[in-house]
Every structure is written in structure tokens, then in C-alpha cells.
Amino acid sequence: MAPERISGQKHGYISDIWSLGLVVLECATGQFPYPLRENFFELLEAVVDQPAPFAPQDQFSPEFCSFISDCVQKKAADRKSAQVLLSHPFLSLYDDLEIDLASYFTSSGSPLAFF
């Protein structure tokens, strides 16, 4: 949940950008971006009061670190919009690769082939 939602401030789709950043960071690191707390309310306080999580620069590409940073800016007004993020270098890094995921999933027998 984005800091502005927790604080009861105005929020909108830009709050979802915060969530996107946290989910992508968690997928990349394999752990939740905030340390475990005693209870849920302490976690909410940490989201509002602690610095935003970040991707460690010694473990990830500059493009990835920048993407995460653009998503998890504490102030909603400082976060990049979905439109801007769609052209972020991290998302366009491999645009020139010709990969047919549908064929891959179909040939592997994956249930994802049917979506």
C-alpha cells in the first residue's frame, strides 16, 4: 500500500505505481522490501516514515535500479506515470530480441499456453 493511501491522503492510479515497484523488487530479490515487523501497524508506519526501498546497485543493472526508484518515490507527485514507465530503458532494454513466448509455452505444455 502506498504511503499516501496509508496516510489518508488523496490517491489514484499513481498509488498502483508504488505497488508495482514493490512487487517487481520483491520478485527480483526474493524477499519483501520491508523488514518484518511485530505487527501490521508497525509495517504501515515503516512504509510512511522510513526511506523508500531500493534495488541494491551492486546486484542489479542501473536500468533496473532506476525503474524501481521511479516507482517507489515516497511523494506520489515524484513518481513516474505508467505512460513514462512504459518507455523506461529497463522495459525497452531487450526490445530488439525476437522471442515468441506463445510458441514457447505451447511447446513446453505449459497451462499458460491457453490464456
Automatic annotation (TrEMBL):
Its EC number is 2.7.12.2. This is mitogen-activated protein kinase kinase. PROSITE patterns: PROTEIN_KINASE_DOM (PS50011). Pfam families: Pkinase. Gene3D superfamilies: Transferase(Phosphotransferase) domain 1. Belongs to the protein kinase superfamily. STE Ser/Thr protein kinase family. MAP kinase kinase subfamily. InterPro entries: Kinase-like_dom_sf (IPR011009), Prot_kinase_dom (IPR000719). Keywords: ATP-binding, Kinase, Nucleotide-binding, Serine/threonine-protein kinase, Transferase. It is an enzyme of class 2 (transferase). Residues 1-91 form the Protein kinase domain. It comes from the Eukaryota. The keyword Lipid biosynthesis does not apply.
